[in-house]
Amino acid sequence: MRFRSQVIQKGLYYASHAPQLLCAGNLLMQVIQRIAAKVNNSLLGWKTAQYIFSIAPCNGLHMMHSLITPVLIPGLLCTEELFHDQLQALSDLAAGNQAINEPKIADTLSHDSIEGMAIAALAATSGSMVAIGLSMGGHVALEMARLAPNRVPGLALLSTSHKSDTAAKRQQRMATIKMAETDKFRGVTRHMLGSFLLPAALADEPLAARVLQMAQDVGRQVFISQQTAILNRREQSDTLANYRGEVMVLCGLLDELTPPSLSREMVALSTHADLHLLPETGHLSSLEAPEAVSEVLIKLLQRVCMRVGARS
User: Fold this and answer.
1) Is the pTM here over 0.70, yes or no?
2) pLDDT digits (tens, 9 = 90+) for 37-85
3) Within a domain: residue 16?
4) Is the pLDDT of residue 223 over 90?
5) Could you tell me which of 119, 115, 154, 146 has the C-alpha nearest to residue 239?
6) Residues in a beta bridge with 203
7) Residues of the domain holding 103
8) Angle ∠(108,219,196) on CA atoms, nearest 5
9) At residue 248, what are phi and psi to the nearest 5 degrees?
């Protein structure tokens, strides 16, 4: 793990200086290939190499001149359905704003580490992006900002936390993994439904059915991988404190999984953060308060566009 972190940081150093290296893409790729060989060409090592190379354009132009892509990152047991309304709202925004690309959904189903999810999301999109993550997706967004702060001029942290799990929370998470491993996955998902949604939202049968369908689509093995990734995530207080992009933190006032106190802590750590606390809203804020979440995301994208435009 320590060596892999050094690999990433070394690659990022070279990548961040690419505009000053006068199109030194070939030299950079040779460096990356040597690094990848040292980690036995592991999948993560290769993905890291691909990602690092992708942020070092050979034309010598700074990446901030590219369009901004909203990248939405689902949480545990969730698919792109989690952002159904936000995808439409951001697509409409992109249609009327030449500085913004169509939104994309990050892949949170193919990796068993937050770092792996973040590297994949960065590699899947060229240029600048605003990372929009809910719950586990927020952990991935913070990791993206840690790995490539210059490529992520904006963060939206929805119903999430910058901290690692407490001992009690780790025990709960490991218990759900054990249940899922013994083919009790359906029981796990129904048990967690009460934590995801408020009683009023649970009474909305179509909404509850959407959440259960997402869990079914994700499946037992991916659930175990996602829980493992969350268990092993890093603490991101330093990331927030050092990050200089625009930050929007949002949480439901009735969220029990990631209570508002955590959102307040994240805002206190950040230098450019707005806080939005939604009344009568639980953990899955994008589903329970879709219009409010879409509105603040649009405002964040507009802020990022203005800030990036001012630097160009």
Assistant:
1) yes
2) 444 444 454 444 444 444 433 333 334 447 999 999 999 999 999 999 9
3) yes
4) yes
5) 146
6) none
7) 63-164+230-311
8) 75
9) -125, 125
